[in-house]
Structure formats: structure tokens, C-alpha cells
Amino acid sequence: MVAASRAKSSDRAAIVKKLLPAIKKQYKVVVPKHDRPVLETMLYAICLEDASVDEAELAFERLGKEFPDLNEIRVSSISEIERAFSGLSRAEWRAFHVRSVLQYVFEKSFAFEFESLRKKTLELAQKQLAKIKQLSSFVRNYTLQSVIGAHQIPLDESMSRALIWLGLVPPNQDSEQMGETLKAVIRKAEVPLFCFSIRCLATDKLVRDFFDPAKHPAPSEGHDGAAVTERLADLYKAATAKPKPKPVAAAKPVETKPAAKPPAKAPAKAAPPPAAAAPKKKAPAKAVPVKKVAKKAR
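and the corresponding C-alpha cells:
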């Protein structure tokens, strides 16, 4: 077993030789072909960083629909530009970087034109891009690799995490150092295929959490990449396995207490006999008036 920190270029080359066919089979990898102007390539790279190709394409297209031209983006607020990156991580960060790039280019030439970068040597192009302070190393290297064909390996954070898990690079390197480490293994012509393949793996929603060092920290010397295809197969099985339902504990029988007997009702008291009705008093007979009889005269 060879840890990533002690792996030689030949070891890494052997890992890549086994790795790429496995990833290509899993994701049906076809490298997208882009032929954008330099400035648009930089804006697309901001969309692509730590995102899938489909997500980046959608965000880049939405950016063009939300704003009629590049100058409109340059003078818009961050919150307005941020809407184009809805659903992507760090939407505010992307909006700020897009506006910063456009402001830098416009202030230099009062036009949105940066094609002169194609004619520069790698050293001069690097110096030119280094003047744009808001550019990440990924955007710089992606631009250099795409525009002038430099032997650069643009890596963002999500790709770097996946490479550590694969055992291709040690965990104590930053993305720039990882790119330099892999230059000895990945030929210039193979860089687009390699980067696109790693991106497919790194942004796969089913497995990307397995590369999170906070949840799955790597050994101090890095993973051993010798068994990378077997580890990948196990990874996909673990990601697609349906969680087993938790056994339902049998319900404990509820002890029922015998129902309390209702208290015996007291025998109903007999109703008292009705009181004898008092005899009705007879009304006194009416006195018959006595007619006075007139005495006869004798």
C-alpha cells in the first residue's frame, strides 16, 4: 500500500489509467467543446467553479438572458446579478466576481475586449490575469488552459476533495499544488478529459458528500489509490443502497385493570301515599226569603 503523500508519478499514472475508464463508463463522459471569446470564457469559468457542467451552462445562459449586454451587468448591483446564479452555491460570490472582471476589463480599454490575451506567452498571460485580484486560481488556470492551451490543470475545491479521496494527491496540498503534482501524470492533451471526468464524479449529488473532509476525514498521509476502482464500486453501492427499514418493536401488551364495579344504587324510596283530599265544605244553603202575608181584616 502506498499512501498519496508517498506515491510516485508512476503510481499516480497507474491510478489514472484505471480510474478514467471507470468514470467514463459511469457517467458516459463526453467532453463539451467551447469556443468562446476570452472574456466570456472567464465568466463561464466563474459559473463552472464547484458546479456541474449542466449547472454552469444554465447559469451562463441565464446571465445572458437577464441582462441585454455586458455593460448592463457591469453597472448592476450584486443582488441583481445574483439572480442568475439561483440554485448554485455561493451565488453572491459569483455575482461579485463576474462584475469585478467586467469592471477591470472595461476600465483598461473602455471596451469589453480581452482577446489580446491569446497572443501572450504563458508567463505574460499569467501576469495579466494576476492583476485581476478577484479571480480564483481555478478561473485563472481554466482560462489559461482553454484560451492559450497552456499545460494547466484547473482544480476547484470540489474536484480537490474528490482527488484526495481517490488517493491521487495528499490532503495537505492546496489546489495549485495539486495541479502541479498532477502535471507530471496528465499530458497536456489529456487535461480536458481528465478534468471533465473528475468534475462529473465530484459534483455527483449521490456521492459528493463522501468526499467532504468534515464528514469523512482522510488519513494524515492520504488514501491509498491502488484499489481505486474497487473503492469506487463500493462507493456507488453505498450511495444507491436503499436504507433498511428500522424494525418495528412489538407493542407491549397493555395491562388492563378489571373495570371497577359501579356502586350499588340505594333502593329507591317508595313515594309517600298521596295525602287524602280534604272533604269539600258544603256551601251554606241560601235563605229563602219569607214572603210577608198581609193580614186579612177581620
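(Above: one complete record from the training split.) The radius of gyration is 46 Å.
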